[in-house]
Hints:
mainly alpha, globular
Amino acid sequence: MLEALYVLNVLLMLALPLVVVTVARKxxxxxxxxxxxxxxxxxxxxxxxxxxxxxxxxxFRHGVLPTPPESVRVWLLPVAxxxxxxxxxxxxxxxxxxxxxxxxxxxxxxxxxxxxxxxxALLVALVALSQLINLFVLRGMDLSxxxxxxxxxxxxxxxxADAWSAPWWMALAGTWExxxxxxxxxxxxxxxxxxxxxxxxxxAVAIGAHALLDAVAVFLATHHGVVVTELAIAALAVGFAxxxxxxxDRGRA
Length: 253
């Protein structure tokens, strides 16, 4: 049963971007150009986001920046990762809006956000597919025959054992997480749109909301496990979506 659920999870994750595109095209009338712009915004944000995180990590690893005590690291890492994601992605979204001067409606902002979140969902789904293939290929294999260090083989063996002994609902966690991640991206896109309709302070709102979501996710995943983390992500995403929905009339051109 677990094998089938892992396969189902990946199939649902691969289907999600198609559902997002269909909703955007059929229900919102979003153009392919706008969906593509949202996808490009995510890609370009990662061109800055990934090197930034790697660079800061390297500064700590090589002693350029002092390593904070454990009591500080507990909250500093989630906050730092949340802020880096919020700043890079929401500023990129803001720049994208400035380039697309005609996109100022609530529906347009929603479609732009769905392009952003849908493209990220596609990339995550492809990673999940790769992981699923490895999960099946390595199952039952003698890892000592692989050209890897013993400690790495031991770590992989533990990961495989955890995956194949997980409760059934864990197999579907990837789909659950992506659905609410897309919902959050759509909401952040509406928030950034308000920077052009109500004032630049809304960009800070979007950055703060995104940072909060990612920081909570990192902290809870480290200290409280998958269930609490995914429930918290869902609750925050629904809250952000409710706020974005409340902006729909006043955000209309």
